[in-house]
Amino acid sequence: MPESAPRSGLVLCTVESVRVHVLTGQHVVLLQPQDSDRLVPIWIGADQAHSIATRIAGIPSDRPLTHDLMMSMLSAASVEITRVVVKDLVTDASGQGSVFHGSVFLQVGQREVEIDSRASDAIALAVRCDARILVSEGVVDRASIAASGDDDTEPGELSVFRQFIESLPDEPAKGGGDSPDDPTKGSS
Question: Which residues contact 6 (CB under 8 A, 6 or more apart)?
Answer without folding.
Answer: 12, 83, 132, 134
